[in-house]
């Protein structure tokens, strides 16, 4: 069943609905006497804000990044896609449903966000759809591996989520990587990889993305500027890590093209309607 044909079944304020589980969890914490301030410090060390899309998208509008990516719809149609740092799944679901992807795997280091993303499936398709119920059951059965029940039948069977840390701990592990994706999304994730795993962790992740892409594939990159690294309150560990960084965001392009091996780079656009400083260029790095 194709989700695009069920446009009328979607809530009017989609972002408001997909955050419902995030808001409920915060209220439950308050009732149980959990310090939200303390919890926020512990939870957001990886940039895993459970209200992230509430910040990026206001008044139920479409995420402006989706409008930009939709201009290159052919890149996504019938393709296998990896969404690194998928948060609660808004971009993941939208690309799986509206961009006609063959398969989309959303991954995140925060298992609580993955659980929310899975539950949010109901808001991107008819809640009573047998396909939705079947897929939700498969999520519960297998929590360690991505499940694609039947990609050929389209949405929602072409989307899955996995709790995993994308950053490898050694370059030696890169030898195991094989090309399996046509598109890899890395949207507002580089900063948090950088702060937690340093220059080498981010470089290793870039290499892994390249190795996982098929020939002709592309990395869709939205990198945060270095100024933003210090805007949020960081733990003592992350502050110390930040002071050690020498591989700065303005160096990423050169590294990806000349060291990693990408053939070319194209800047799509800067989301002009983004709020709270989220005006970052979206770039495509192509693998020959």
From TrEMBL:
InterPro entries, per database record: Bin3-like, Bin3_C, BIN3_SAM-bd_dom, Methyltranfer_dom, SAM-dependent_MTases_sf
Does the record carry Protease as a key word?
Answer: no
Nucleotide-binding keyword on record: no
Task: Kindly give the Gene3D superfamilies that the UniProt entry links to this protein.
Answer: Vaccinia Virus protein VP39 (3.40.50.150)
Q: Which residues form the Bin3-type SAM domain?
A: 63-288
Tell me one GO molecular function of this protein. Answer: O-methyltransferase activity
GO biological process: one example: methylation
EC number(s) from the headed UniProt entry: 2.1.1.-
Signal peptide location in the record? none
Mind listing the UniProt keywords for this protein, alphabetically?
Answer: Methyltransferase, S-adenosyl-L-methionine, Transferase
> Per the similarity annotation, which family is this?
Belongs to the methyltransferase superfamily.
Name of the protein in question: RNA methyltransferase
Protein source organism: Parthenolecanium corni
Q: What is the taxonomic lineage of the source species?
A: Eukaryota, Metazoa, Ecdysozoa, Arthropoda, Hexapoda
């Amino acid at each position: 069943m194709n989700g695009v044909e069920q446009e009328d079944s979607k809530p009017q304020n989609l972002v408001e609905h997909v955050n419902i589980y995030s808001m409920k969890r915060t209220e439950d914490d308050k009732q149980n006497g959990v310090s939200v301030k303390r919890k926020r410090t512990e939870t957001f060390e990886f940039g895993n804000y459970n209200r992230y899309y509430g910040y990026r998208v206001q008044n139920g509008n479409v995420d402006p990044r989706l409008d930009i990516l939709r201009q290159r719809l052919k890149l996504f149609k019938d393709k296998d896609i990896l969404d690194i740092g998928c948060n609660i799944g808004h971009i993941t679901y939208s690309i799986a449903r509206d961009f006609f992807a063959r398969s989309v795997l959303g991954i995140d280091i925060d298992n609580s966000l993955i659980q929310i993303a899975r539950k949010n499936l109901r808001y991107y398709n008819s809640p009573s759809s047998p396909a939705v119920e079947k897929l939700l059951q498969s999520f519960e059965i297998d929590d360690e591996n991505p499940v694609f029940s039947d990609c050929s039948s389209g949405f929602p069977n072409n989307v899955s989520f996995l709790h995993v840390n994308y950053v490898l701990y050694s370059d030696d592990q890169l030898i195991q990587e094989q090309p399996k994706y046509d598109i890899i999304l890395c949207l507002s994730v580089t900063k948090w990889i950088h702060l937690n795993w340093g220059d080498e962790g981010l470089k290793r992740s870039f290499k892994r993305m390249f190795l996982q892409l098929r020939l002709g594939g592309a990395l869709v990159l939205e990198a945060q500027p270095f100024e933003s690294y210090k805007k949020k309150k960081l733990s003592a560990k992350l502050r110390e890590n930040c002071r050690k960084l020498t591989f700065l965001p303005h160096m990423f392009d050169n590294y990806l093209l000349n060291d990693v091996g990408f053939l070319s780079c194209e800047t799509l656009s800067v989301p002009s309607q983004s709020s709270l400083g989220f005006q970052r260029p979206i770039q495509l790095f192509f693998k020959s």
